[in-house]
Design a protein that fits this description.
The complex is a heterodimer of chains A (224) and B (218). Chain A contains 9 helices and no strands. Chain A is mainly alpha-helical. The longest helix of chain A is centred in the N-terminal third of the chain and has 32 residues. The radius of gyration of chain A is 18 Å and the shape is globular. In chain B, helix 6 links the parallel strand 5 and strand 6. The two termini of chain B are 19 Å apart. The model of chain B has no long low-confidence stretch (mean pLDDT 85). Classes of the chains: A mainly alpha (224), B alpha/beta (218). At the A-B interface, helix 1 and helix 4 of A face helix 2, strand 4 and helix 3 of B.
């Protein structure tokens, strides 16, 4: 219980900071919207292609926003050496990981809702297979947040953090990009049966990422 | 080791419960390194270190829960208020969030309790560091240049906290360059020169000719 309570404490702290600073609201979410809009301008002449590519473009926008959200999550720990404060608290590394990953996941959910609405409007997409879409989005988001948080702490103490995080995170989350795009494609095409295997892949990735992060985060926090 | 350089090689220091030990010495001598080591923030690469009877190399997390460090940085979040920062530390270290109010009153920060850390002056930040340290109810309080940035009232608060040390069953190790102020608080002084710890007589400069020679070179 204390493990989960500590994770909630860290998540609450991160979300409160984001609510105050409004970086997620005023920078990360608009960034996702801008990416989606740029794709709409680029492919506007071919509405069929835009419609077909909508799931991939949506997840590409989310993926780019993940890099910003993770970078921000660890930037707040670098200011005033707050990271040392976390270490001094004696909190278990696993609970810090779960808390930080949960906060990133909440921000990503919010981003997905807003960017998803923009995709529906700009790309003329009709929403079908809502249950599959929701399951895929939850599994993909947890996987992205967990993987991003592990690599975020790895690069956290380095000067090249801003450039290193995307280099590390983007290749590592390729299975999520693939699974999320395919499952969304199948659901939107009205064949949810084809989506479930991809959702299972996403769920397996999420479980592995959370388990690995819970174990590895503590030592990484010490060494970074 | 700090990077590729050995730090505190051969250093030997024993502190009794209830003591207030002043670490003095030139810049770069290893005072901050020693304090961060005692706080469990730096790994012990060689030798032995026990803090409060706990082997630092084996159980650094247990050491961290029992000590508090007031360092050069506040370890706080700019977008959280003073009260939120202290409450977070209290809850993260297994204490009641309500303890934060008492501690803020003790260090004289209740008036700015709802001000964001990022808007505090240097002296207020220093007091907040003290509050964060006290709310943990540490058995060992480590103070790194605690007088820096503090006004007269802040220094009086600090003195009151340090002087209450024996009654509260706490031990204090402080590193300072403001020796006149620090010596008034300390029960003992040791001088660190080039990573070596040397006892300082009750009055006057270090008598050890080796220390004098190393200091001259430092």
């Amino acid at each position: 219980m204390s493990f989960l309570r500590d994770a909630l404490l860290v998540a609450g702290k991160d979300l409160r900071i984001e609510r105050r600073s409004r970086v997620a609201l005023q920078q990360i979410i608009p960034f996702g919207g801008v990416v989606v809009m740029l794709f709409a301008f680029a492919l506007d002449s071919d509405r069929t292609l835009l419609h077909q590519a909508a799931p991939g473009l949506f997840w590409a926008a989310v993926l780019l926003a993940v890099v910003l959200a993770v970078g921000r999550s660890f930037a707040i720990e670098e200011a005033n050496r707050a990271r040392d404060g976390l270490r001094l608290s004696g909190l278990d590394g696993g609970s810090i990981f779960l808390g930080k990953a949960a906060a990133v996941a909440v921000e990503l959910f919010l981003l997905e809702v807003i960017v998803g609405a923009a995709v529906v409007v700009l790309y003329d997409v009709s929403v079908r297979g809502v249950v599959v879409l929701l399951c895929a989005a939850v599994a993909a988001t947890v996987g992205l947040a967990a993987t991003g948080t592990v690599y975020g702490v790895l690069a956290g103490g380095l000067r090249a953090r801003e450039t290193l995080v995307p280099l590390l995170v983007l290749p590592a989350v390729t299975p999520v990009m693939l699974g999320a795009t395919r499952s969304f494609q199948a659901a939107l095409d009205g064949i949810p049966g084809d989506a479930w295997p991809w959702v299972q892949l996403l769920a397996a990735f999420a479980v592995l990422a959370v388990a690995a992060g819970t174990v590895a985060f503590g030592p990484l926090l010490e060494e970074a | 080791m700090l990077g590729r350089f050995p730090a505190l090689a051969g250093a030997d220091l024993e502190v009794e419960t209830g003591e207030v030990v002043l670490l003095s010495g030139p810049n770069g001598a290893g005072k901050t390194t020693l304090l961060r080591l005692c706080a469990g923030l730096l790994p012990l690469r060689a030798g032995e270190a026990e803090v409060l009877g706990v082997d630092l190399a084996v159980e650094p997390r247990r050491v961290r829960r029992a000590v508090a460090l007031v360092g050069h940085e506040t370890f706080c979040y700019d977008d959280l208020t003073v009260a939120e920062n202290v409450r977070f530390v209290a809850r993260a270290t297994g204490h009641r969030a309500a303890d934060a109010d008492d501690v803020l009153e003790r260090v004289g920060l209740q008036r700015v309790a709802h001000t964001a850390h990022g808007r505090l002056s240097q002296g207020q930040r220093r007091r907040l560091s003290l509050a964060n340290a006290l709310v943990r109810k540490p058995r060992l309080l480590l103070l790194d240049e605690p007088h820096a940035g503090l006004d007269e009232h802040g220094r009086a608060v600090l003195a009151e906290i340090v002087r209450a040390t024996p009654a509260e069953g706490r031990t204090v190790i402080l590193a300072s360059h403001e020796l006149d102020l620090a010596r008034r608080l300390a029960t003992r002084e040791v001088r660190i020169v080039a990573g070596q710890v040397h006892a300082v007589p009750a009055a006057g400069p270090p008598a050890d000719p080796v220390v004098a020679e190393v200091e001259a070179r430092a």
